[in-house]
Specification:
alpha/beta; 2-enoyl-CoA Hydratase, Chain A, domain 1; six-stranded mixed β-sheet; globular; delta(3)-delta(2)-enoyl-CoA isomerase activity; Enoyl-CoA_hydra/iso; Enoyl-CoA_hyd/isom_CS; ClpP/crotonase; ClpP/crotonase-like_dom_sf
């Protein structure tokens, strides 16, 4: 049985399903490797998060009004394209981003960082179902989730890596702040940021980058992520899950707001295009 989801518009980039009363599943499918483009983030992922939060809040309010002390459970699962077993997300859609200079100026502060902050402080538990490789910005998005379940790599390789060091790209303030918030061991920070190490699933679990690894394909990873989501969905009932995270990750939230764009007419119009 599934439950209806009210999407603001049909999107080929993101779908949301509602398989149980307490679970929402957001699937990214911008190509098989779920690249994060301006359109993907601002026009598809952001509205999809709105849908999930609105649906959950409506059930939570109804439970409160009915004095149902167990009502208002909720968890969000984010998974890569379910038609393949190779990628969760391969990071930014780099070629398209750099093709429009004004959009490039706006991309981090006005498109990416709001999504990262949104997931980092989402009001219900979030689980990344990492069904394959997860690189660069895809890894940062997964780290913003509260829990991570990853394919164990036994069927095919699955790497976890921040590879910017290998192609000479500096990190935005938000990326470094999220890494510091979620990975506290400076030796692991060095391995991720300065060495660009490709973590196997077993290494990722041993260092705390993922909570569980699962043998099997995308559906096996998703099934375990859903089971984990169900097990923690009751934490949403009191309503404080997102509020506590706002303080827990305050440094990362404030740092992401300091990725500043110098204003000009072109960048202002590009920001409006991403917003409207």
């Amino acid at each position: 049985m599934s439950y209806p989801v009210r999407l603001p518009s049909d999107s080929p980039l993101v779908t949301v399903t509602h398989p149980t009363p307490a679970l929402w599943v957001l699937e990214m499918h911008n190509g098989e490797d779920s690249r994060l483009s301006e359109t993907m983030l601002a026009k598809a992922l952001a509205p999809a998060l709105d849908v999930v939060e609105r649906d959950w809040r409506e059930t939570w309010r109804a439970a409160r009004a009915a004095k149902d002390k167990k009502g208002g459970r909720g968890a969000l699962i984010i998974v890569g394209n379910r038609s393949q077993n190779k990628f969760f997300s391969n990071g930014f859609d780099y070629d398209n981003i750099i093709s429009t200079p004004h959009s490039t100026l706006n991309f981090m502060p006005n498109t990416v960082n709001p999504i990262l902050r949104r997931i980092l402080t989402f009001p219900i538990p979030t689980v990344a179902a990492i069904n394959g490789h997860v690189f660069a910005a895809g890894l940062i998005l997964a780290l913003c989730c509260d829990y991570r379940v990853m394919a164990d790599g036994s069927s095919r390789n699955a790497w976890m890596c921040m590879n910017e060091i290998h192609f000479g790209a500096a990190w935005p303030l938000s990326f470094a702040a999220i890494l510091r918030a979620k990975v506290t061991d400076p030796r692991i920070q060095r391995k991720i940021a300065l060495e660009g190490h490709r973590f196997t699933p077993a290494e990722a679990q041993a260092t705390g980058l993922v909570d569980e690894i699962v043998q099997g394909d995308t559906e096996a990873v998703l099934a375990r992520a859903q089971a984990l989501g169900e097990s923690v969905s009751g934490q949403a009932v009191p309503g404080a899950w997102g509020l506590i995270k706002r303080d827990l990750y305050r440094d990362a939230l404030e740092a992401s707001a300091r990725d500043v764009v110098l204003p000009n007419v072109g960048s202002d119009d590009a920001a409006a295009r991403a917003r409207l």
